[in-house]
Amino acid sequence: MTNGNLKIPTVALGTWAWGDSGEVGTGYFGSSLTQVGLEEIADRAHTAGFSLWDTAVVYGAGRSENVLGEILKRLARSDYQLSTKFTPQAAGIGAYPVAEMLEQSLARLGTDYIDLYWIHNPADVPRWTPHLIPLLKSGKVKHVGVSNHNLSEIELANRILGEAGFRVEAVQNHYSLLYRSAERAGILNYCRKQDIPFFAYMVLEQGALSGGYGPENPLPAGSNRAETYNGMLPQLKALTDKLALIGQMQGAAAPDVATAWAIAKGATPIVGVTKPHHVDGLVRAGRITLSPDEIAELEGLADAAEVDTRGWWEQRM
Ligand SMILES: NC(=O)c1ccc[n+]([C@@H]2O[C@H](COP(=O)([O-])OP(=O)(O)OC[C@H]3O[C@@H](n4cnc5c(N)ncnc54)[C@H](OP(=O)(O)O)[C@@H]3O)[C@@H](O)[C@H]2O)c1
């Protein structure tokens, strides 16, 4: 039982950074964001056919959803798909915490349905998964997925939904050249076999793989991502140089190649776009072909960097 088809684009758009205040150096990302810039991102994305927008209640404590809802008012609701999440750690104490959190997301996003609704993490799979069923039945949620779940948790969620005639329709985990745990734990393989789209988040490692940052030009001081990644930038140079070199040969740039790598591995990357030209990079990424040798070389350089980019919110897979 599904509520129509979920359209899976080559790349989905992430808006965690949109939850920051927009001031340089503040918040998780510390990037400068402007209303005009975000509007141009939405327009370019629409023109390029990137229609799936990912957010979560906890990105900037509702701010990302608010900002995204405002920006997308310029488009018809049928022109885009919304993906947002129930975060167990932020659950209220009412009888229906998932339905209540969904209502808040709907209000902030200015809509009456969510195309793809996620359980953000596997805090308690048997407890939270069944709450998705009445939301699917009501039509307020069209499709459901699980994020940050390991293989046995994904299978458990699938069994719980299956008993009600539904299924896990998407999986979303951290997956990048530097962090391939989903592949090593057999999650990509499982998704392929079950025909479940696998969404890869942080394919650019929050900008550390964009090639735009390095020891001389670190991530914005004061931001959380700077704390995580700035110390690793020297080890990442050989990899980002190679990404840039492969890109040059196809009229593309380093981040486009990092994104193309995830596509080549069968994933749908969710890329956090903060500037209009990032959308052009996603268009290029969709056109890049990587040979098996190039993929092996990139993965070899990534392994040689010997960095652990597991997020503080992630369990080991
Ligand atoms: N389910 C989960 O637990 C979870 C966790 C993390 C993320 N996510 C989702 O996945 C999305 C992506 O992750 P993320 O935003 O954390 O990190 P990301 O996509 O790896 O990196 C985003 C950063 O990379 C830079 N960038 C993006 N596109 C670029 C391009 N074409 N060229 C150069 N630089 C580019 C931007 O930095 P500058 O602003 O410095 O240019 C941007 O802030 C999130 O927005 C969120 O929707 C989900």
Automatic annotation (TrEMBL):
Pfam families: Aldo_ket_red. Keywords: Oxidoreductase. SUPFAM superfamilies: NAD(P)-linked oxidoreductase. It comes from the Bacteria. One of its GO terms (molecular function) is oxidoreductase activity. InterPro entries: AKR, AKR_Detox_Biosynth, NAD(P)_OxRdtase_dom_sf, NADP_OxRdtase_dom. Gene3D superfamilies: NADP-dependent oxidoreductase domain (3.20.20.100). Residues 11-301 form the NADP-dependent oxidoreductase domain. This is Aldo/keto reductase.
